[in-house]
Design goal:
Layout (H helix, E strand, L loop, with lengths): L9 E9 L8 H10 L3 E10 L10 H14 L3 E4 L5 H11 L2 E3 L1 H12 L3 H16 L25 H36 L4 E6 L5 H9 L16 E7 L3 E7 L9 H6 L1 H8 L3 E7 L5 H14 L7 E6 L10 E4 L5 E5 L8 H13 L2 E8 L4 H9 L3 E6 L5 E8 H10 L1 H7 E5 L1
Parallel strand pairs: 1-2, 1-3, 3-4, 5-7, 5-8, 8-9, 9-11
Antiparallel strand pairs: 6-7, 10-11, 12-14, 12-15, 13-14
Helix pairs in contact: 1-4, 4-5, 5-6, 13-14
Protein name: GTPase HflX
Main location: cytoplasm
Subunit structure: Monomer. Associates with the 50S ribosomal subunit.
Length: 431
């Protein structure tokens, strides 16, 4: 049903340099995507244009060059580093006599290969179906018109219409299932919020080293490889921070420039781990010459999913590839960490990252000392349920002197429900 690759396919790559900055793509990134898909690039055709050609995307001369390259290299597929319209794909396939795929279809195929969980597979299938719905006519051109005349009339619905109806039904079913998964995730997030466990989410450009860093911090064994989109399914692990207590670390899918909108929409449930985070760790490959462009692209996607305003710590990874860089924390004028330089592969600087995370999350913490009389045992019980008691002493009168460390938001909630009791117990207040 879908254009799926088999390992060892031979591909001709097509890359066009446009004068407009918004339409430009990166040829090296295309090669990495093709390699990640398990396809062998046998030739590259490149050129320059002001705007795409309406019929072939490239000019007629360049189309002939692609056709000749396909025949001489015995290629199985032509892969464009751009988004093609269904008509352009069809026209190019007729000329080249082989499959023609665009950048979006290539990314979808990699996602289909990588998805491991039930949710991930559903999300990929949804994105594939939405993308494919505009290209259905390719497979059914011979059935597009009903034959007329005695004995030749059709059943009332063309194959194309039947296919579209089945496709809509399947999309509806998948969206209902994803909605159920989304509700389950939301319940998990609400439970963590009730327990006031902060969530730290790893974000960044694909292949920046998020999963390697995740494994280094949590001792998890999630799949990590030097390829694009090694991680698709969100993975959560509990970590313990000295000054904060338990926290949740989330590893998420990597971003890429011009990420297809269907994919952003399909992976909404996954990206919600980012939207609901207390702190974002923006992992950056400091050895990549396109580092600044990649950071901009991640910020664009974060804005798209309404996460641009969340507290953020920049994590410059792969300093082992940059001999002039060393592990360190960089701070702002108030002394708060703004970036950490480290190597997740070597483990160098990861303790500095833990320290920086603790400092930033602890900035949202409040310290109090309360003198709780025997009559307020219920309040003492609530404090223990919140796991915020650091020390406790009992005096001769039977009063408990309790020191607590609690998130600011949880303290406000506690005061709201126990205003009079807390006011009478307040002994020392430290920020």
């Amino acid at each position: 049903m879908f254009d799926r690759y088999e390992a060892g396919e031979r591909a001709v790559l097509v890359h066009v340099n446009f004068t407009s900055e918004d339409e430009r793509e990166d040829l090296e990134e295309l090669k990495m995507l093709v390699e990640s898909a398990g396809v062998k690039a046998v030739a590259t055709v490149s050129g320059s244009r002001k705007s795409p050609h309406p019929k072939f995307f490239v000019g007629s001369g360049k189309t002939e060059e692609i056709e000749q390259m396909v025949k001489s290299q015995k290629a199985d597929v032509v892969i464009f580093n751009h988004a093609l319209s269904p008509a352009q794909e069809r026209n190019l396939e007729a000329v080249c006599e082989c499959r023609v795929l665009d950048r979006t279809t290539l990314i979808l195929d990699i996602f289909a290969q990588r998805a491991r969980t039930h949710e991930g597979k559903l999300q990929v299938e949804l994105a594939q179906l939405k993308h494919m719905s505009t290209r259905l006519i390719r497979g059914w051109t011979h059935l597009e018109r009903q034959k007329g005349g005695i004995g030749l009339r059709g059943p009332g619905e063309t194959q194309l219409e039947t296919d579209r109806r089945l496709l809509r039904a399947r999309i509806k079913t998948i969206m209902a299932r994803l909605s159920k998964v989304s509700k389950q995730r939301e319940q998990g997030r609400r439970a963590r919020k009730r327990a006031e466990i902060p969530t730290v989410s790893l974000v960044g450009y694909t292949n920046a080293g998020k999963s390697t860093l995740f494994n280094r911090i949590t001792d998890a064994k999630v799949y990590a490889a030097d390829q694009l989109f090694a991680t698709l399914d969100p993975t959560l692990r509990k970590i313990s921070l000295e000054e904060v207590g338990p926290a949740i670390l989330a590893d998420t899918v990597g971003f890429i420039r011009h990420l297809p909108h269907d994919l952003v929409a399909a992976f909404k449930a996954t990206l919600q781990e980012t939207q609901e985070a207390d702190l974002l760790l923006h992992v950056i490959d400091c050895s990549d010459e396109r580092m600044h462009e990649n950071v901009e692209q991640v910020d664009i996607v974060l804005d798209e999913i309404d996460s641009g305003e969340l507290p953020k710590l920049l994590v410059y990874n792969k300093i082992d590839n940059c001999p002039e860089k060393n592990a360190r924390i960089e701070r702002d004028q108030q002394g708060f960490p703004v970036s950490v330089w480290l190597s997740a592969q070597q483990g160098e600087g990861t303790e500095l990252l833990i320290q920086a995370i603790s400092e930033l999350l602890a900035g949202q913490m409040l310290e109090q000392t309360l003198m709780i009389p025997p009559t307020e045992g219920r309040l003492r019980s609530q404090l223990y349920q919140l796991e915020c008691v650091t020390t406790e002493d009992l005096d001769e009168q039977g009063n408990w002197q309790v020191s607590i460390r609690i998130p600011q938001i949880e303290w406000s909630r506690l005061v709201k429900h126990n205003h009079e009791a807390i006011e009478s117990c307040m002994l020392v207040h430290q920020d």
